[in-house]
């Protein structure tokens, strides 16, 4: 796991991998939502008189949903192994620890950004993010 400060260049190196992980996460969430709806539909169905009857065994569906949930957790853990801090899944938003003028800040990226091009103070959030005008303010531009 990466805990040290990153430059924008270093953070950008990880973006293709992170985008791939978020694509998997989004697919798994969609699959999980559909399965959850199916479970709800099978859990209780109305009989002809309007009463509720318990439907067929949903244990296999619940087991599959638990597997999907675990796969999502695994993907999120993988994302964190690159030093990314997940702030949101929909839309995908991540922060990277960095320094600007020797002060701790976050570099940030979200779905739709072509690269890591913004930053914000640690005590603030995405809504206050600022454009990176001078990448050299965040440290050397070489990958270590």
Q: How would you portray this structure in words?
A:
With 144 residues, the protein is of the alpha+beta class. It has one domain (8-138). Helix content is 41%, strand content 23%. The chain has two helices and seven strands; from the N terminus they run αββαβββββ. The protein has helices at residues 8-43, 59-81, and strands at residues 44-46, 52-54, 84-88, 93-100, 103-110, 118-121, 130-131. The strands form two sheets. Strands 3-4-5-6-7 form a five-stranded antiparallel β-sheet. A hairpin with a 2-residue loop joins strand 4 (93-100) and strand 5. The longest helix has 36 residues, at 8-43. The radius of gyration is 21 Å and the shape is elongated. The chain starts with 7 loop residues before the first helix and ends in a 13-residue tail after the last strand.
């Amino acid at each position: 796991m990466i805990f040290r400060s990153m430059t924008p260049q270093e953070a950008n190196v990880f973006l293709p991998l992170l985008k791939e992980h978020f694509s998997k996460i989004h697919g798994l969430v969609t699959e999980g939502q559909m399965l959850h709806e199916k479970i709800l539909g099978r859990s209780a169905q109305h009989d002809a008189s309007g009463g509720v009857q318990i439907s067929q065994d949903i244990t296999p569906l619940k087991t599959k949903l638990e597997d999907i949930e675990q796969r999502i957790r695994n993907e999120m853990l993988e994302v964190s192994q690159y030093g990314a801090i997940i702030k949101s899944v929909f839309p995908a938003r991540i922060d990277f620890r960095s320094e600007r003028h020797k002060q701790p800040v976050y570099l940030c990226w979200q779905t739709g950004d072509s690269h890591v091009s913004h930053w914000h103070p640690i005590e603030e959030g995405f809504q206050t993010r600022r454009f990176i005008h001078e990448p050299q303010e965040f440290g050397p531009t070489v990958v270590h």
